[in-house]
Design goal:
By secondary structure, the chain is α/β, with parallel strands linked by helices. The protein has 6 helices and 5 strands, in the order βαβαββααβαα. It has a 5-stranded parallel β-sheet, with helices on one face. Strand 1, helix 1 and strand 2 form a beta-alpha-beta unit. Its EC number is 2.5.1.25.
Length: 201
């Protein structure tokens, strides 16, 4: 039993308490399109959050935590070395007078994903004008979410991990590694459901 006031032992890899370690659900995948996850601070230590599992599984994945980002640092993060490469934002098109989102942009080499609730993600867009300027990627006919431990307000709303994996499959093509990552995600969801059920007993 952990003494009052002391911290629970944590896994050195996933940084979660040992009793909630998510390392068994990590599924390595060598993604070609880099992922930049912009994580709202409220999501950073959320037990149900999926960004850390995604980061541990993908070869090319970074997480920046914040609500407002330094414009110069963000511009540098979004820059690409070649003119035929570009950063895209995974987000539904909601701008008036804007063109439709592309389904499979040929030049997307970096995908920016907002790890936040829908309300918080809209605020992050407003606070960071550079994100508003990015071309946007639309998911093609997304399936129902497998994220049973967190309530979605609309049927098409997915977890950060689900949305990111679907987007990578859309950009790079089907991959057994991505399907395996979704299986690992199912294990994570089941684990979290058991932990929350145990807390209620």
């Amino acid at each position: 039993m952990t003494p009052p006031g002391s911290q629970r032992a944590r896994c050195l890899n996933c940084q979660r308490p040992l009793s909630a370690c998510i390392c068994p659900w990590v599924r390595p995948a060598a993604n070609r399109v880099e992922l930049l996850l912009l994580q709202h601070p409220l999501e950073q230590d959320h037990a149900k959050g999926t960004a850390r599992l995604l980061q541990l599984s993908l070869r090319r994945c970074r997480i920046w935590v914040g609500e407002t980002f330094d414009p110069l640092e963000l511009a540098q993060a979004l820059a690409t070395p070649e003119p035929d490469q570009s950063s895209w934002l995974l987000y539904p098109e909601d701008r008036p007078q804007a063109g439709e989102c592309l389904i499979t942009p040929p030049t997307c080499t970096r995908l920016v994903v907002l790890d936040a609730t829908w309300r918080k993600s809209r605020k992050m867009l407003l606070l960071n004008p550079l994100l508003q300027q990015l071309p946007r990627l639309a998911l093609r006919d997304p399936p129902a979410s497998r994220y049973a431990i967190r309530k979605a307000h609309l049927g098409h709303q997915l977890s950060t991990l689900e949305a990111s994996v679907l987007a990578l499959q859309q950009l790079e093509g089907p991959s057994p590694a991505y399907e395996d990552l979704l299986v690992g995600f199912d294990g994570f969801v089941a684990q979290q459901a058991r932990l929350f059920q145990a807390q209620r007993l």
